[in-house]
Design a protein that fits this description.
By secondary structure, the chain is an alpha+beta fold. Helix content is 17%, strand content 39%. α3 packs antiparallel against α4.
C-alpha cells in the first residue's frame, strides 16, 4: 500500500543504556566464568522514567484510495474519533447515491517507538497482536424483491502488538467493503437510502451508548426488501464500559438481525444484547371479509397485551421496546384504532381481521442472587403469544372457521424487602422479596355457516395463573404465599342477535380478543399462606428455573 502520511507525535529523547553487572562484581571469580556484561538499549527510555521523558513516537498510515476519492480521508478522521467509527457507516449512503457497484478500502495505522534519525517505512507484515483494546464491526446484506443484492461490511480494530524489531506497536485498522449485484430501480434506491441512514444512526448510537433501538429501523415500512441481515458488534475495553451491565460478562453484546418478507409470510429473528425475539406473520391467514378498522383495533389490543405482560413480569424498558419493535415490524405502522367496534353478522368480521402470527421472547438473565444455593434465583422472563386460524371451505359453499389465541408468560424477579429502596446483592444483603409468575391463557372462536346461514358462533376463554411470593430475611425463607387465578367461560354469540330482545346486546370486538385484564377481573382468586419450612426445592433456589420457548433457539 502507498504511504499517505507520517506524523511525529513527540520530540526525540536520549536512549537509556543499562548494564547488568555479573554476580560478585566485574573482578570476581564468578564473573570470570561468564560472558561480558549484558547491555540493554531501551529506545526512548522507560515511559514511567520521567528523567528520560516519554519515548519518541512515529505514526505510519497506509491505505488505498483507488475506488472512491475522499473515502480514505473520512476513514482517517474516523480512526481519530475512536471505535465509534462515527459517520463512517454513512459510506453506504454515499455508495448508493454515487451508483457504485464495488468499493473496497482499507487503512492501517501503526504507532511505534523510535530513537529519531531518518524515517524509514517499517515492515509490519510480521505484526503479532497481543492486546485488542477495541473492536467494532457492522455487517449488512439484503436482497430486493426484484433480485438485486447488496453487501456492506465495516470493520474497526485497535490494539497493541509487536514485531521482531519493535517491542510495542500500536495499530489501528479500518476496512470498508461494498458490493452491488444488479441494478436498483429508483423506488428501490429511495427505500435503501432511507434504510442506510437509519442503519448508520443505529450503529453510531450503539457505539456511543450500547442501546439497540430496533424500532428505529422501521422494518414494517419496507416494501422493496425481500431479505435483510444485519450484524453489529462493538466491545472490549474501550467501548464496553459506558454501557456494560453489572455481572454480565457472559452477555454477547451487539445485534444479530434477520428479516424476510415474502408473498406468504414475514419473519424476524433478532438477538440484541442477549435478548432474543422471533416473530412470524402468515399472510395467507387472513379470512375473507378483511376489515381495516377491525384489524387496527385488534392489533392495538394485542400490542397492549404485550406491554401489560412485560409489566406483570417486571421486565425492563429494553425488553418492552425490543418486543414491540418486532411486533410492529410484523404488522406495519398502526393507525389510530376506533374504540367500541361492534360485531357484524359477517362471520369474518367476528374474528380479528388480523393475519395469523406468532411472537416469542426470551430475555437475558438480569439480576442474579450469588448466594450459594440460590444461584438459580434471577430476574428473567419469557413470552409466547400467537393467533392461529383454520378455515374449511366445502364444495357446497359451507364454511367452518376456528380461530385460537394462545398466551404463555413466565417471569421471575426481585423486589426490595420492606424498608429498603433496592435489592443489592453486591453487599451480601440477603433481605429481599422474590417472585415467580406463570400464566397460560387461551381464547377460541368457532363459526359454522350452512346454506348461507350462520348456525354456530361460540367463544370460549381460559386462564390459569400462579404467582409465588417469597420473602427472605437474613438468607432465610420467612414467608411463602401462593396466589392462583383461574377462569373459564363459554359464550354463544348467536344469542346476542336474538330478535326477541327489544334492545339486543351487541358483541364488541374486545369480546373476541384475548383480554388478560378481563380474565383476571372475573377469575377466581385464591391466596394461600404456605409453611416456609415445607417449601419445595425449586422455591428455595436449589433447582434451575427453566425458561423454554421458541425464542430460546434463535441463532440470528
Amino acid at each position: 500500500m502507498a504511504a499517505i502520511s507520517n506524523t511525529y507525535l513527540s520530540a526525540s529523547v536520549v536512549p537509556k543504556i543499562t548494564v547488568e553487572i555479573p554476580v560478585g562484581g566485574l573482578g570476581s571469580k564468578e564473573s570470570q566464568n561468564r560472558v561480558s556484561p549484558m547491555v540493554n538499549i531501551q529506545l526512548g527510555g522507560l515511559p514511567e522514567a520521567n528523567i528520560y521523558g516519554p519515548p519518541k513516537q512515529q505514526s505510519f498510515l497506509s491505505g488505498d484510495d483507488q475506488n472512491l476519492p475522499g473515502l480514505a480521508e473520512r476513514m482517517s478522521k474516523a480512526m481519530d474519533k475512536g471505535p465509534g467509527i462515527n459517520n463512517l457507516a454513512q459510506s453506504l449512503t454515499t455508495f448508493l447515491q454515487d451508483d457504485q457497484n464495488s468499493v473496497h478500502q482499507q487503512l492501517d495505522r501503526y504507532t511505534y517507538q523510535n530513537t529519531g534519525g531518518k524515517w524509514v517505512e517499517p515492515d509490519f507484515s510480521e505484526l503479532e497482536k497481543h492486546t485488542v483494546h477495541a473492536e467494532s464491526e457492522l455487517s449488512f446484506s439484503l436482497k430486493t424483491k426484484s433480485g438485486d443484492t447488496i453487501t456492506f461490511n465495516l470493520h474497526y480494530e485497535k490494539g497493541l502488538g509487536s514485531t521482531p524489531r519493535y517491542a510495542a506497536v500500536g495499530y489501528e485498522n479500518v476496512s470498508v467493503d461494498y458490493e452491488l449485484d444488479g441494478r436498483l430501480s429508483q423506488s428501490e434506491k429511495n427505500e435503501l437510502l432511507a434504510l442506510s441512514d437509519k442503519i448508520n444512526a443505529l450503529a453510531n448510537n450503539y457505539f456511543a451508548t450500547g442501546e439497540l433501538d430496533l424500532d428505529s429501523l422501521d422494518l414494517g415500512s419496507l416494501n422493496e426488501v425481500a431479505e435483510l441481515s444485519l450484524s453489529l458488534d462493538g466491545g472490549l475495553t474501550e467501548i464496553t464500559p459506558p454501557f456494560a451491565l453489572p455481572n454480565h460478562d457472559d452477555v454477547d453484546y451487539g445485534l444479530r438481525l434477520k428479516f424476510s418478507d415474502g408473498p406468504n409470510a414475514r419473519h424476524i429473528e433478532s438477538v440484541a444484547n442477549g435478548n432474543k425475539v422471533t416473530a412470524t406473520l402468515d399472510k395467507l391467514g387472513l379470512v375473507d371479509g378483511y376489515d381495516t378498522e377491525r384489524r387496527e383495533a385488534a392489533l392495538a389490543q394485542y400490542r397492549q397485551q404485550l406491554v401489560d405482560g412485560v409489566g406483570r413480569a417486571n421486565g425492563s424498558e429494553e425488553d418492552r421496546k425490543l418486543l414491540l419493535a418486532a411486533f410492529d415490524a410484523l404488522h406495519g405502522e398502526l393507525e389510530e384504532p376506533k374504540p367500541g367496534l361492534k360485531l357484524s353478522e359477517d362471520e369474518a368480521a367476528m374474528l380479528t381481521s388480523v393475519a395469523d402470527f406468532r411472537i416469542s421472547y426470551l430475555s437475558r438473565v438480569g439480576m442474579r442472587n450469588p448466594e450459594e444455593g440460590r444461584e438459580e434465583q434471577s430476574a428473567r422472563f419469557s413470552l409466547d403469544f400467537s393467533q392461529e386460524t383454520e378455515i374449511h371451505q366445502y364444495a357446497n359453499g359451507d364454511l367452518d372457521i376456528d380461530q385460537n389465541q394462545f398466551w404463555k408468560l413466565r417471569g421471575t424477579y426481585f423486589k426490595p424487602a420492606e424498608g429498603k429502596s433496592m435489592v443489592d446483592f453486591s453487599s451480601n444483603d440477603q433481605n429481599y422479596r422474590y417472585y415467580e409468575l406463570q400464566e397460560q391463557a387461551a381464547s377460541r372462536t368457532e363459526l359454522e355457516r350452512r346454506n348461507g346461514v350462520l348456525v354456530k358462533a361460540d367463544r370460549s376463554v381460559e386462564l390459569d395463573a400462579k404467582l409465588e411470593q417469597l420473602v427472605y430475611k437474613d438468607n432465610v425463607l420467612l414467608e411463602w404465599n401462593t396466589i392462583t387465578n383461574q377462569y373459564s367461560d363459554k359464550t354463544n354469540l348467536l344469542a346476542l342477535y336474538d330478535d326477541k330482545f327489544a334492545e339486543p346486546e351487541v358483541a364488541m370486538l374486545d369480546d373476541l380478543i384475548l383480554n388478560m385484564d378481563a380474565m383476571y377481573k372475573y377469575s377466581d382468586e385464591k391466596i394461600t399462606e404456605n409453611d416456609p419450612n415445607k417449601a419445595p426445592d425449586y422455591l428455595r433456589g436449589e433447582e434451575p428455573v427453566v425458561f423454554a420457548n421458541e425464542a430460546a433457539s434463535v441463532k440470528a
